[in-house]
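User: Could you go from structure to sequence for me? I need the amino acid at each position, not a summary. Structure tokens:
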């Protein structure tokens, strides 16, 4: 977010030795699309074995910086950085999702009564790079459309059948909650390492194997111990991670931030990669 905010206002991206590197990757320099900038930072960090690159806007007038970025500078000062004078260490970071659940113009999924709005949805508004501030369109356009449809359809909705009460008689309290935290941490790490900015088929396959193992562990845990919020969230995270990995493996191209070094070119067809249930 910091890099995104400042690079459009004349900030430079620098190596630890103070040299600019973006002009070597793209003629637009720091104004290149975010996927190119993120991969350039990632590449330079790996090439140099550096912990970070740097963002520098100190060449701008201090009054300009303080006027345009008062909140950012206020957040940085307690950390020992003055945006008007110092280079700010940066690394690529997980940003936002770029859609995934296909919806129609009213935000409806293919499951009756289920709507998807925002960055989880596939509307075409995000593009391959999730352009800045397109979330406003999601809020103003799709949220309104979905709300109008819900008002129209709410009276027709049928109440779901009554679910049986949860039976805890066959499970016990776990004395190994640390297992959940460990698996949660492991999932974060390998999704960043294998399914992050730069992907490859081998990395995706490795991530999928780890997901399958963790899913089995969670299933065993779920079957024997009392359910907790953390366990349910871990199970949901694994489900989303698997969908992301399988979709990435099915895509035989690179487009925007969906970049695979085994398939660096863009295919003529810009259509979505759709996963279907095994029974279809």
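Assistant: Here is the amino acid at each position, in order:
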């Amino acid at each position: 977010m910091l890099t995104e905010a400042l690079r459009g206002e004349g900030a430079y991206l620098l190596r630890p030795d103070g040299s600019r590197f973006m002009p070597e990757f793209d003629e637009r320099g720091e104004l290149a699309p975010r996927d190119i900038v993120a991969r350039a930072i990632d590449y330079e960090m790996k090439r140099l074995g550096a912990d970070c690159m740097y963002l520098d806007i100190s060449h701008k007038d201090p009054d300009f910086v303080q006027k345009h970025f008062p909140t950012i500078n206020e957040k940085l000062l307690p950390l020992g950085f003055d945006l008007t004078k110092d280079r700010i260490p940066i690394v690529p970071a997980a940003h936002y999702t770029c859609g995934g659940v296909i919806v129609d113009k009213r935000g409806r999924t293919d499951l009756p009564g289920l709507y998807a709005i925002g960055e989880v949805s596939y509307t075409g508004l995000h593009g391959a790079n999730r352009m800045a501030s397109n979330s406003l369109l999601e809020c103003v356009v799709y949220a309104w459309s979905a709300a109008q449809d819900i008002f129209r359809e709410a009276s027709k909705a049928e109440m779901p059948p009554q679910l049986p009460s949860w039976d805890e008689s066959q499970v016990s309290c776990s004395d190994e909650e640390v297992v959940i935290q460990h698996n949660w941490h492991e999932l974060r790490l390998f999704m960043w390492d294998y399914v992050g900015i730069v992907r490859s088929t081998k990395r995706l396959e490795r991530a999928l194997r780890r997901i399958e193992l963790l899913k089995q562990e969670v299933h065993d845990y779920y079957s024997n111990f009392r359910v907790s919020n953390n366990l349910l969230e871990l199970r949901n995270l694994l489900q989303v991670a698997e969908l992301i990995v399988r979709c990435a493996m099915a895509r035989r191209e690179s487009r925007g931030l969906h970049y695979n070094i085994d398939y660096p070119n863009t295919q003529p067809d810009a259509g979505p990669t759709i996963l279907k249930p095994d029974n279809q």
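One structural detail worth keeping in mind: The two ends are 40 Å apart (CA to CA).
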